[in-house]
Specification:
With 246 residues, the chain is an all-alpha fold. Helices cover 64% and strands 0% of the residues. The protein starts with 13 loop residues before the first helix and ends in a 5-residue tail after the last helix. 32% of the residues are buried.
Length: 246
């Protein structure tokens, strides 16, 4: 069985593409199960750096939260050994405690941890960027997995099949839409088949597979970090087209 990053998604049949997506998270786990954690983390960091570079162009009417950029840069610092595990773990706890309050209104962790509360007041107290909530949630998962040293690929699957697949592809492709209040199972199946069979979705998959392959090549981290400042899932111009999707 080929690793997920070696499968030519665009060449699959419509049915095979649906199966590829249903199996995506498990396939990523199997493909990387014998790969060191550091390489798995690098692959996920490349994917999320690429995604962040696009995402921050999708809400031109809202301030871009600087703390999200800080978190991405800290992931790189950690891998370049410019940030130790203790510092990263402290950042992750404060970041995720703050995210919990923003996303759910649960401030219990903030009340129990003065350092997290201080972090929240500095970076999140005047959160005025609802469009970034999905990215905030996914990035919290990435940080948690970095600290625990267990990559589940949940966040990557969520980006591809959730954030992008559920809504964003519609800005580039004509896909079946039901105008009623919901989908029945047959309508959902039809939408999935049409969605996964678009050229835009195939391009997204190809770029993420490329990131996985690049992570395996042993390219020096400073070189990769510089390169990925200008890598996108959607170009800034494309991202502007989907800026109102929320």
């Amino acid at each position: 069985m080929k690793p997920i990053y070696e499968i030519d998604f665009s060449a699959l049949s419509a049915d095979e593409k649906v199966k590829f997506m249903y199996d995506m998270r498990d396939s990523m786990k199997v493909s990387f199960q014998e790969i060191p954690f550091s390489i798995q983390l690098l692959a996920q960091t490349l994917i999320f750096t690429r995604w962040w570079n696009s995402y921050k162009h999708m809400a031109p009417n809202e301030p871009t939260p600087e703390i999200l950029e800080v978190a991405i840069e800290l992931l790189w610092d950690f891998q370049e050994e410019k940030c130790d595990s203790k510092t990263l773990a402290r950042f992750q706890k404060s970041f995720c405690d703050s995210a919990l309050e923003i996303l759910t209104g649960d401030d219990g962790e903030l009340n129990e941890d003065p350092e997290s509360e201080t972090f929240y007041q500095k970076h999140f107290h005047h959160w005025d960027a609802m469009s970034y909530n999905v990215f905030l949630s996914d990035l919290c998962t990435v940080l948690e997995e970095t600290v625990s040293q267990e990559i589940t690929w949940d966040a990557v699957e969520g980006v591809v099949d959730g954030d992008i697949g559920d809504t964003m592809i519609d800005f580039f492709e004509t896909i079946y839409k039901n105008d009623s209040n919901g989908y029945c199972s047959s309508e959902l199946d039809r939408r999935e088949r049409e969605l996964y069979d678009t050229s835009t979705f195939a391009r997204v998959i190809a770029l993420i597979q490329q990131d996985m392959r690049i992570a395996l090549k042993g390219i020096p981290l400073p070189e990769l970090r510089a390169q990925y400042r200008n890598e996108y899932l959607f170009s800034p111009e494309e991202s502007a087209k989907i800026s109102d999707y929320r």
